[in-house]
Every structure is written in structure tokens, then in C-alpha cells.
Amino acid sequence: MTSNSVYLQVAIPVPMRQSFTYLVPEALAELSFTKGDRVLVPFGNRKLIGVVLAVTTDSQVATTKLKAILERLADESKLSPEQIDFLSVCARYYHHPIGDVVSQALPVLLRQIKPVDLTPEQCWKINAELSNEDLNKIIKKLAKSAAKQQALYQYISDHGELTWPEIRMAGFLKSQITALIKKQLIIAGTVKSEAFVFTDDCINCADKLSLSVEQAVVVSSVNQQLDGFSCHLIDGITGSGKTEVYLQIIEEVLKRSQQVLILVPEIGLTPQTLQRFEKRFRVPVVLHHSGLNDSERLQTWHRTKKGEAAIVIATRSGVFAPLVNPGIIVVDEEHDGSLKQQEGFRYHARDLAILRARQLDIPIVLGSATPALETLQNALSGRYQYHQLTKRPGNSNIAKIELIDMAQQQVEFGLSGSLKKAIEVTLARGEQVLIFLNRRGFAPAISCQECHWIAECQRCNKPYTLHQKQGLLVCHHCGSQKRIPAQCGKCGSIRIKPLGQGTEQLEQRIGDLFPEYSAIRIDRDSTSRKGELAKLLQQVTDKEHQILVGTQMLAKGHHFPDVTLVAVLDVDGALFSYDFRAPEHMAQLLVQVSGRAGRASKPGKVMVQTHYPEHPLLQDLVQNGYQHFARYALIEREQARIPPFGFQALFRAEAAYPSLPESFLRQISNQNFTDCLISGPVAAAQEKKAGKYRYHLLLQANDRKHLHAAVQQLLKNIEQSELQNKVRWTVDIDPQELSW
Ligand SMILES: [Zn+2]
Ligand SMILES: [Zn+2]
Questions:
Q1: Domain holding 229: CATH number?
Q2: What's the 447 CA to ligand 1 centre distance in angstroms?
């Protein structure tokens, strides 16, 4: 028996682009259902967790064909109506199955049927019962014998109470907690479960900086508009004090007892920024990022949802955080590519954050030293409020970029003579050097000296990268690995040599060239273990190493006050890429890397090696800076009607035979649209990857309405296509990478 008056529209994590109608069984008829409820439903012969999108009193489908839900799950894990509205808009905008979108907004443990453990999280605080006399004695002893333990004690004391993820993020170990408990300096407890309410001691004014005129104007402008939606771009050169501006805006929001959501590209890379937040505000801060395990993520989710968390610092999926009393959203480094999800539900966290702020009717602040051209255009056209920070406090100079013409140079291990000399001089002054090469591994290929055979991954038709330390060839496209062959695969010769240079080799060569200094490498390979990155960064700050070799990981957020020379070994690839965004990304990278150098009082220098020193893009960037470069690039984009002056969608398809994705895409696009241009199908830049052949179709229109209409039509065509199940296909709205 079922209760006939109510129908539930339920989102279920299945690939179908629709919601499903369910009945409420008689046994649950007493319950009143609302959108956001989590329910257990039968689907085929499975049971799945779904989320109620709407409660209706009539159904499009005959009642006799409908099934009833099995159960409604715990109330404290439901989504709010605001979240459901937001997720529905997301699904529509990205033409992505609603079930999958909703499931992304739930922590992994809430997507499972198994009941979840919601006992409050453990935390540690200082033992207040210890007498001052005893305390002083122990601390004095600690300072001599266990400096790390003393630092942890101080850290906990500064914060009131801390959970394990918070302690771990600050670079401490479990054994240090245990040691402090043994000495009775700290005690274990559970996190207080109360909604955040502002009190005067929430703010630590001691390290508050006085603002420059420029900064003060931005702070007061945003703070006067906290009552409704407004979108702000803070375009501030590196070192112009964006973080202090964020802090003083956030202070005002906290004073209203409201929550703050801060989106950042990668938390592991910005510990210094994190520390400043934690030092300034004595409020509950929760972190949401990939370094947490599933139950830690669930705790973060609940503390946000119950309003305990005053500040949520999160990577891109934090845009779906269950805020209950939000006051502002901040997106730091809004230009950063990692804000866009590149698989499955391909959303851009910055764009969704703006959408959400509008829906929540709260302000949003985007910040960058190198704004994305899309964002800059919106600011220049007046859609966003445009704030510029053009000065560095204390008038420290921005590092100058110098181009090195490689044609004029003696080159040794990829280093030009001029660069080598500059490195020597810098090291001799007792300062640090950062060398930047965007290629991991020892060498990008190995080749036979006799017949020029190159070891290639058969699944991708691309050279294997040599990782000498591991003794492996690794395909950077599909991840497949094999042992380094002793002989040529074609002629059998044993004269096999590495071709070209990656960071692993560079680190070794640098060690040979400058034996009296210590060099370390920071890239994905050297920091794959948890906590390793924080450790290496700390060693650099402590000046244990003088030379840093790394990939673009090093360009993000972290600053190194004693690095006064930054070298970029190779930028030429970006000058001739067919992806129209490549020059923009190159410019952002160069400026961001420059920003790592010469902070504080020491002037910095950036040297860029290139074979094309006269290239107009490089010249413009070096002579006139990012602002000028960006405005010029916008003019070019406008003439070509490409984003942000046109709108794009990309249909990607892949299969084991090249004919399949090609005919599939041809079939679904076999019609003319008056206001939307379709190009392709063409083979992807990397035509074969992991054994699959890849093709795409690019849709381009002058306005979003026509783009979405065409996407809609193509999706309809796909439903009719007999090839739809023979290929793997995706649609990407506002694609960031056309050369996939
Ligand atoms: Zn050979
Ligand atoms: Zn491969």
C-alpha cells in the first residue's frame, strides 16, 4: 500500500539525464517530505541512495508503474533546499546528469547505504589545571630537548582546540601529541558542537597590518556591500597584500556571525596563507581538500552544516559546501586551472561560486595577480566591480624579467652561460635560486644511438619518460610503466641514451655543477608521500637548501623570501601551441613564478631562456607587464570571437577504433544551426591515449542561449544514435583545454 497523494522526484547517481518519480509507502505516510531529503530507493535490482529534488502531488507517470521508496535517512544529513536549487542550476548549465551532480555535493560516506558515525570529532586543548610554575618548568625543559613539541604546545595554545587534520596540516606528528599528553600539557576532548557566534576575542589584532590607501578603498567598498550580491575582482600584483585585504573583509563578515567560504587552488601549497588566517582569527576553521580521508570530510561537512565552522577553506568541490549562514565567498588565485574539474562533472568552481553567491544574495571576491581573461573582461565591462592593487607595501620592487637568447649562448645541461653565471653570483651572496622546468622525470624519451628508435607507449603512441631513480619508463599520458630495456627494440643495439632533460636529471646536474651547495627537487614525484611537500617547503624556508628545482607546482602561492633568482628554462612550447589559451597560461605562469622571488627587501631577478626572444607575446609581457599583455590578448580574442567574446562547448568521444568516435560525432552533428558554428569532428591533439582513439566536436556561438540550444539538440541526437553505447562521450561547457 502506498500513500497516493505525494510523489517524490528523486535524483539518483546513474548516468541518465533525468530524475525519477517514486511513491511514499503507507508506512512512511506520516512523515512530511521536503526537497533535500536523502532516501533509499529500489533501482532495477539494486538499492541506491537518492536525494529528493521536489515533492509533487501529481505524476507524469502512471502510479501503477511507480515504485515506492524504502526508507528516509537521518535528518542531519539532508541537503538544504538552497543546495538543491543550486545543484539543479549546475546540472542544467553543464548539461550533466542531475544524479551525478547531487552525488558530488555529498561526502562519500553519505553516498553509501551504511549508516555513518556522527560522534563529534576528537580534539586537543591545553591542560588548564597545570599550575603556572609546573608549566614553566616543563616548557623550559621542552625548549631545550624537544623544540617541535614545544612548538605544537604553542600552536594548540594559540588556537584553543585543534583536531588531528588541523594539527597534521601544520606539519606536526601524532607522536608529538602523544608526548604532550604524557607530560600532561594537553588533554583530549571533543569538538564543541555550537553554532559560531562572534565575540570580541575572535580577532587577534596583534598582527593586523595597517592598510595602504589602495587596500583600504577595496576593503571599505566590499564591506559596504555585505547585504546583497556583488561580484568583485581584486587584481593585485604579486606581493600587493591581497591576503591582508581578504582578512579585513572577512573580519567584518565574522563580526556579523556569518560563515566565510574561501576557495583556493591547492591547500598543500599555501600553508603560509593558512597560518595567517589561523593566527588572525580565533574561530573554528575547517579545511576541505583531497588530503582528508572520508570520515574527516564528513566531519568537515557536518561542522559546516551545523554552523560551527566560521571559516571553510576548501579546494574546488568546496563550492558545494552546506553553508547555513553564509556571509561571503572568496576565490583566491581565481585564474588557476585546478579550479576546473577535468573529468566527469566538468564544472568550474569559480563560475559556480559566482552563481551560488548570486543565489545566496551575498558578495563574492575574486583575487589574482594574473586574472583569467574571462574574469578581466567581466571586470573591464563593468559586470564585476574592478579593484586594482598596483603597489607593494614598503615599495619593494617586483622582479624584472630578462630574456636570454639561447642562440647566442654556450649551453651546458640545458643551462645557458649567462644563467650559470647568475646562479653562481646569487649563491655566493648567500641567497637562494629557483629553477623551473615543466617536465618531470629524468628525460622525456630514450632513444637508440644507432637506428634512432624511440621507446614508445603502444597505447598512446607517445615516447615513454625515463624515471631513472625508479628504474622505470613511465608513460605520462596513460600512466603505464615498464622496466628500462637493455637493448634497442628495433636493432638490438645496447647504445640506448636518454634524450632531453627533466627535473630529475636537472637536479643531478645542478648538484654536479655546484657541488658546494645543496639542491632539492619539488615536483609531483618527489612529493607524492603525504606531508612530504610541507617538509620540503619548510627545509627551503630554513635555508637547508640553496637551489630548488621544480615544476609549475612551485609557481603557486608559496613564497620564498630568500630566493632572489628565478630561472625558467623553457617557455617556447606555449608560443606555438594551437590552444588559444596557451599564451595566457604562459604569461600567468611567468608572472606567478616571478612573484616567488625578491619579496621583502631583497630585489629579485627572473631569467627566461628562449629561442624566440623577439616573439611579440614575450616582448609585450616583459616590456609592459601582465595588465598590458592581457588587454592586448583580449582585443585579439574579440576579433576572433573566441572566449570571453564567444561561447564554446566541446563534445569529446573515444573508442578502441578510430572510425567509431568519428562517425558518432558526425552522425549527431549532421544538421545546420543558424546561430551556432560546429567544427569537426577532428582528431584530438593527442589522437590516441591508453589504447583509445579520441575525436572531438567544437561548438561555438556568440551568445550562451544559442550555444545551449545547440548542445541540447545534440544531446537529443545522441539519444537516437545507435553508436552511443559504442563510444565513451562527454560534453564540456566552457572547456578550458581544447588540446586534450
Ligand atoms: Zn636501434
Ligand atoms: Zn601511454
A1: 3.40.50.300
A2: 8
